[in-house]
């Protein structure tokens, strides 16, 4: 069956922080009296993020989503800085940090994004983002010029389900009246993107810019441009009218 839609993860797939998370957290913390190495902060971020509950809030009103997102991130950042003890100006620090990562200028596109997405759209493909992010992602993608190539941006905090659960993929499929076999999802996480897509019946493609090994016989790419050759070899994309 022809692929009619390509879904993308956001952070780590289309966009990345201009500076590493560890560097940014450490630099901003220093302004508020806490000295921590970027390496240690990065490791704490990984530990706290891996142990966190999904960034998703089922059965809540849209009016409360942004507050819940902010509180979710505040708890994660508090976890990151626990080893450094008392943080007297934490609220001010967190407010600046949260606002910083809402700016498009804090992020950058991977080099091939600006040519790959238009090329896919010219083939008549539906392009969406499916991300375990929060509402700030919309402004980031708009500011970086990505949103113009997308039909929808599905954010876990708003959908109420986070990858790898199939419900967030089902939301995108239903939106476009597609069967799972008509969609492909590209992301950088084997667990949330690849396994999540496969469990939803969607063709999963893992982008790993540092390896050529294909896990469990699945597709692994090093560059988003490779999506075009995959479509040419394996599937016939929908042609523009």
Question: How would you describe the overall organization of this protein?
Answer:
- The chain has 10 helices and 8 strands.
- With about 240 residues, the protein is an alpha/beta fold.
- The protein has 2 domains: about 140 residues, Rossmann fold, CATH 3.40.50; about 90 residues, Haloacid dehalogenase-like hydrolase (DNA polymerase, domain 1), CATH 1.10.150.
- The strands form 2 sheets. It has a 6-stranded parallel sheet, with helices on both faces. The protein has a two-stranded antiparallel ribbon with strand order 2-3.
- Strand 4, helix 6 and strand 5 form a beta-alpha-beta unit.
- Helix 1 packs across helix 4.
- It is globular, with a radius of gyration of 19 Å.
- It starts with a strand and ends in a 7-residue tail after the last helix.
* CATH fold category name of the largest domain: Rossmann fold
CATH superfamily of the largest domain: HAD superfamily/HAD-like
Gross morphology: globular
User: Helicity, in percent?
Assistant: 40-55%
Shape-level CATH architecture of the largest domain: 3-Layer(aba) Sandwich
| Strand fraction | 5-15%
Mean model confidence by pLDDT: 93
Enumerate the spans where pLDDT stays under 50 for 5 or more consecutive residues. 235-241
Rounded radius of gyration (Å): 19 Å
The biggest sheet amounts to: 6 strands, parallel
Number of domains: 2
In short:
By secondary structure, the protein is an alpha/beta fold. The protein has helices at residues 21-31, 38-50, 65-80, 90-100, 113-122, 136-143, 156-159, 166-175, 190-199, 226-234; strands at 5-8, 15-17, 107-109, 126-131, 152-155, 183-187, 203-207, 219-221.
């Amino acid at each position: 069956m022809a692929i009619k839609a390509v879904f993308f993860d956001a952070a780590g797939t289309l966009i990345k922080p201009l500076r590493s998370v560890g560097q940014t957290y450490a630099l901003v913390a220093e302004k508020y009296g806490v000295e921590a190495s970027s390496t240690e902060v990065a490791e704490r971020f990984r530990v706290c993020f891996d142990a966190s509950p999904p960034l998703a809030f089922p059965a809540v009103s849209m009016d409360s989503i942004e507050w819940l997102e902010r509180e979710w991130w505040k708890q994660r950042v508090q976890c990151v800085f626990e080893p450094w003890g008392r943080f007297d100006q934490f609220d001010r620090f967190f407010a600046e940090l949260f606002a910083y990562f809402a700016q498009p200028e804090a992020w950058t596109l991977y080099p091939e994004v600006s040519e790959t997405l238009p090329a896919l759209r010219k083939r008549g493909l539906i392009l969406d983002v499916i991300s375990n992010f929060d509402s700030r992602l919309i402004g980031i993608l708009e500011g970086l010029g990505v949103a113009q190539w997308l039909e929808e941006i599905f954010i876990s905090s708003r959908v109420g389900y986070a990858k790898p659960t199939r419900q967030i993929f089902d939301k995108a499929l239903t939106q476009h009246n597609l069967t799972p076999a008509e969609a492909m999802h590209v992301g950088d996480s084997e667990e949330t993107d690849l396994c999540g897509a496969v469990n939803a019946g969607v063709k999963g493609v893992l982008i790993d810019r540092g390896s050529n090994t294909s896990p469990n016989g699945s597709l692994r790419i090093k560059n988003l441009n490779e999506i075009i050759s995959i479509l040419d070899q394996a599937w016939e994309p929908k042609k523009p009218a």
